[in-house]
Amino acid sequence: MSFTSLFKKNIKAGIIKANIHMDEKVRDKVEKYHGVFCESIRENIDVSLSEGLPLCQDTGMIEFFVLKGNKVCLDISLEEILNECVREVYTENPFRYSVVEDPLFKRVNTKNNTPVIIHYMETEGNKLEVRFLIKGGGSENLSFLKMMSPSSTEEDIIETVVSHIREKGAKSCPPLHIGIGIGGTSDKAIMLAKYALTENIDYVNPINEYASLEKKITDRVNGLKIGFQGLGKGISAYSTTVKSFPTHIATLPLAIAVDCYVCRKGSVEFEL
Predict the structure, then answer these.
(1) Residue 242's closest CA among 187, 176, 177, 170?
(2) pTM of the prediction?
(3) Could you tell me the CA-to-CA distances from 116 to 105, 148, 177 in Å, in that order?
(4) pLDDT tens over the chain, length 272 residues
């Protein structure tokens, strides 16, 4: 099998799995919920897996993060192939088409869930890793950017995040995985917040200060008592993941992105 064929096969399988099979770490959190509609939520998860139906009717817009080693040489267009993978998956499976061609005026559905969003990141070595998020409209609408004062404190960051989740979190099918991007430029911070969501919900930041910040934000959000589906029972957030980047001395960008309770994501790796 050629690399292109293997690449397409694994990417397509990952997207299908993410749409119908809840990650076991997320499922474990759901099993511990015993509030309103708990049985319906668990039944939905079982039916999705047994029948090959999506976990949510909003089967999202696909956002890819391509981590390409500096020793990897490719003679193929990853953009073309990733769009092809999504086009085939969504036309061959009972997944809703959620992408419109023009964002403002015509808003005509592309009828194949493309084009996809792709972020490229260079790493060291000979590995090619492709991470992806299946971003539904509800969670995507909670995305947020604020250019904080460079003199802002940790508490200022926490309060900004918690205030935003307090105001809008119930609209995004909680419990949430919260991604935070700090630093860089405005666009870099947003990308970091999205990239943070590609980590597992039990990820712990290797930098102690940021690991502590992650826990503080999660604890404060859970203290809001938003609960499963915004109904006030159970946890409001699974976890928080922070990604940081150097920034200009006069800036402190803060971006927030969230995943809804199904946390649809995946990762495919190749050694080349």
Answers:
(1) 177
(2) 0.97
(3) 20, 30, 22
(4) 899 999 999 999 999 999 999 999 999 999 999 999 999 999 999 999 999 999 999 999 999 999 999 999 999 999 999 999 999 999 999 999 999 999 999 999 999 999 999 999 999 999 999 999 999 999 999 999 999 999 999 999 999 999 999 999 999 999 999 999 999 999 999 999 999 999 999 999 999 999 999 999 999 999 999 999 999 999 999 999 999 999 999 999 999 999 999 999 999 999 98
**Distance (Å, whole) CA 146 – CA 207:** 23
The residue ranges of every structural domain in the chain are 3-136+265-271, 137-259
Strand partners, 184: 247
C-alpha to C-alpha distances, 144 to 25, 66, 167, 243, 265, nearest whole angstrom = 26, 23, 12, 15, 20
* Residue ranges with strand state E in 70-123: 117-123
* 3-class secondary structure, 205: coil
**What proportions of the chain, in percent to the nearest 5, are helix, strand and coil?**
40, 25, 35
- Tally Cβ neighbours within 10 Å of residue 76: 11
Which residues make Cβ contacts (< 8 Å) with residue 139, sequence separation at least 6? 172, 173, 176, 257, 258, 259, 260
DSSP assignment, residue 192? H
Both tokens of 209, joined, read 């200060």
Whether 240 and 221 have beta carbons less than 8 Å apart is answered as yes
φ, ψ of residue 15 to 5 degrees: the values are -65, -45
Q: Whose structure tokens read 């096969």? A: 9
Distance of CA 111 to the CA centre of its chain: 23
